[in-house]
């Protein structure tokens, strides 16, 4: 079993493992990409989608624990398509 498969399996097994494997920076990237996919569906321009998410406080703006909350980590873990290839 390769390292990627081990990380995926361990992350799916528990939130604690997910948190251990993914840094705040990676969570910020996964979260913001997911928000872009959700908002950008259809005909919305990329800039419009970004600005709307930014203005509505839907994006993680920095890697601090205040922004990368336990709740956001838990929500993101449940959306496996975002972090699992």
Question: How are the elements arranged and paired?
Answer:
Elements lengths: L2 H11 L1 H7 L2 H16 L6 H10 L14 H9 L1 H4 L2
Helix pairs in contact: 1-2
Short account of what is shown:
The protein has 85 residues and is mainly α. It has helices at residues 3-13, 15-21, 24-39, 46-55, 70-78, 80-83.
Structure description:
With 85 residues, the chain is mostly helical. The protein has one domain. The chain is built from 6 helices and no strands. It has helices at 3-13, 15-21, 24-39, 46-55, 70-78, 80-83.
Which characteristics define this entry?
85 residues, mainly alpha, 6 helices, 67% helix, globular
Q: How is the main sheet built?
A: none
**Structural class per helix/strand content?**
mainly alpha
Helix segment tally: 6
Element-level helix/strand string: HHHHHH
Helix percentage range: 55-70%
Overall pLDDT, averaged?
89
Shape: globular
What is Rg? Answer: 14 Å
The proportion of strand residues reads under 5%
Termini separation comes to 16 Å
């Amino acid at each position: 079993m390769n390292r990627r498969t081990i990380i995926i399996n361990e992350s799916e097994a528990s939130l604690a493992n997910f948190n251990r494997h993914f840094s705040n920076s990676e969570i910020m990237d996964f979260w913001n990409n997911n928000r872009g996919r959700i908002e950008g569906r259809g005909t919305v321009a990329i800039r419009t989608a970004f600005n709307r998410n930014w203005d509505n406080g839907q994006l993680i703006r920095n890697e601090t624990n205040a922004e990368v909350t336990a709740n956001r980590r838990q929500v993101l873990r449940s959306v496996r398509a975002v972090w699992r290839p």
